[in-house]
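idk why but the lab printer keeps eating my pages so im just putting this in chat instead. protein + EPZ:
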Amino acid sequence: MDKLVIRGGKPLSGRVRVSGAKNAALPAFCATILAPGRHVIRNAPNLKDVQTTIELLRRLGVVVDDSRLAAEHVAEIDTSRISSVRAPYDLVKTMRASILVLGPLLAREGKAEVSLPGGCAIGARPVNLHLKGLETLGASIRLQHGYIIAQAGGLKGAEFAFDVSTVTGTENLMMAAALAQGTTVLTGSAMEPEVTALAEMLVAMGADIHGLGTTRIEIRGGKPLHPVDFTIMPDRIEAGTYMAAAACTRGEVLVEGANAGHMEAVIAKFREAGVTVEERPEGLLVKSDGVRAVDVKTQPYPGFPTDMQAQFMVLMCMAKDGISVIAETVFENRFMHVLELQRMGADIRIDGHSAIIHGRGQLSGTSVMATDLRASASLALAGLAADGETEILRIYHLDRGYEKMEEKLKNLGADMERVKGAGL
Ligand code: EPZ
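predcted complex ->
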């Protein structure tokens, strides 16, 4: 497996373009199952998780032309034929978002066999609300040999209340409800921009959906849907990651294509910490000559996103002599990066669901290991900010969610390289 070697301490400067959002692309690819025919998805990021989703669709009999994905970020997806309803463990174990084929397969084919995702580094990640919601729409669901076996003689609209805000849970039910007979009302729905973007894609396919961007979504299902030519929204977490890279290194970077409307809580926190963030026509101009410690509490949208927690923690390590309390309220084990940051000299103490960071204004390079996608991003930021050399092992985690990260960072002046096949 590859590793990243970073020689830190250099301020980043220049312009970096944001790719399409991973967490909008994955549900969009799965939603094509709902309407037989040829779909075109544009601005799709060329990521490991997107390639896994393409492999999953192909296992279902879908014809995917990804020949233009790397160069033009375009995928052509023909869902005219579905020859299997089974999402196998070998794929689901590498990407939990595979669960997003459950709702569409059930709605279109009346059955689905999806491997239970199991836990992951950041938490148990149950899917009970996905299953309860689909049962409310009339599905019969049983668990057998580690698989979700779902059947439905025809889904029917119903009311369902989420007792926890779940992004993919809301997405699965919205997709299933789009083909259910009658009206479905989802309350307690997730409001993440990626959920709203999926609703916009379904509407473009002919679905009748109201309440976009609220926690009460009404889907009047039953009409057949038609294929779509749809463009993926920019990745707000990738944008926030490069904002943090600029701030951690006291640089000045224009994050091109960032949508400030999706990032209000993140922008507010950067500004509270003393980072200059200016909205420009092309994106967000970010510059910093030193930050102060601020507290953060992760929340479902529109709060501060849990996917930015690890990256922001590195910034708090660079605050001089301040105490920052970061509370992680969404996942139960999303502090794996703390252990590695401590090895780089960070002064962090974990107290339950909070991390208390005593900013020392510096970090020192060493060998560290990535454990999950956003933790590996935070280690890259730490390496950029640290004195000396940092090597990051197991960076396959990074490749799942960041397109050409080392290329984008080197274009901003980072002194780093990827060493093939050298990192555990
Ligand atoms: C999505 O995961 C994202 N992934 C995650 O991004 C993101 O961290 C998360 O939402 C929260 O914003 C994709 O969109 C592909 P959840 P998801 O269901 O949908 C509990 C990244 O780094 N829950 O919103 O799986 C769950 O345990 C990834 O890009 C239930 O209890 O997350 C958690 O505590 C990581 N029962 C909370 O809800 C359920 O049935 C939020 O989870 C479902 C969820």
